[in-house]
Known about the structure:
Layout: E1 7-8, E2 16-18, E3 21-28, H1 29-41, E4 50-58, E5 69-73, E6 76-80, E7 87-88, H2 94-99, E8 102-108, E9 112-120, E10 127-129, H3 130-151, H4 153-157, E11 163-170, E12 177-182, E13 185-190, E14 196-199, H5 201-205, E15 211-214, E16 218-225
Antiparallel strand pairs: 1-9, 2-3, 3-8, 4-7, 4-9, 5-6, 5-8, 9-16, 10-15, 11-14, 11-16, 12-13, 12-15
Amino acid sequence: MKANGRFWLAVGVALAAGPAWADNATIPYATLAQYRTMFNALPAAQRDKLMFVLAVQHRNDSDHAPIHMWVDHGSKRTEIPVGPDGTVSLPDRPDWIAAGVAVQTDQPHGSLNLGFDMWIKPPAGKTTPVSYVLEGVQQANDAMRAGARKMGGYLAMLAAPSVHSISIKLAGCCDGSVTISSAAGKVAAHEDKSGIVAIEPDVLRDHADGTITASAPIMVLDLFPN
C-alpha cells in the first residue's frame, strides 16, 4: 500500500552508515527484527486478525528507485526481498542477532525511512462482516499503544496512535467499489486512481452489525494510523 500510510519510526530509528559501507545506509538486523518480535510477543488472541508488515521508504517522495537489501554473513550473501511497495520480507534469523549482523542497502546514507504496517488479514472472497474489520482495528490500536510504551523514550511520550483510516485494495484496478450494508442503511465507496478504497472507522462503527461487500476479491485491508 501507499508508503505514507505506515507507522513510520524514523524518529526512533536512524538508518546509519556502517564503516564498510560509508556511503550507503545500513541498519542492524536486530533493530529490524525487534518490531516483529514485539508484535509476535502479543498474545495470539490479541493479534489473530492482523498481519505485520515491515517496510522501507525513500525519504524523498519523488525518488522511486528500487531499494535492494542484503546481509553479508561470513562468506555468504543473503538477499532480503523488498517489494515494489517497500514491504520487506525479513527472514527469521536469531543467529544474525547473536552475531551482530547488519543489513546493507544500495541507497545513500540518510535517504531511507523504516516503518511498519499492520494489515487486517483479508477475508476469502468479496464479503466480510463489519465486526471483523472493527475487531482488527481495535487489535491494531492496542498493539501500537503497547509497542510505543515498550519502546519508551520519545515514542512513549507521543499521543497514543490509533487507526484513522482503512484502505481496501481490491483485485484489479481501478473501477471497483465497496458497499457497507446494515440496518442503518447503505454506504458506497469507490476506488481512487491508485486503486484504493478509503473508509474511516467511524463509518464502520455506524454500521457495526452490517456487511462489507466488494465488487472484486478483497486483497489488502491496510490501516492508516494518525
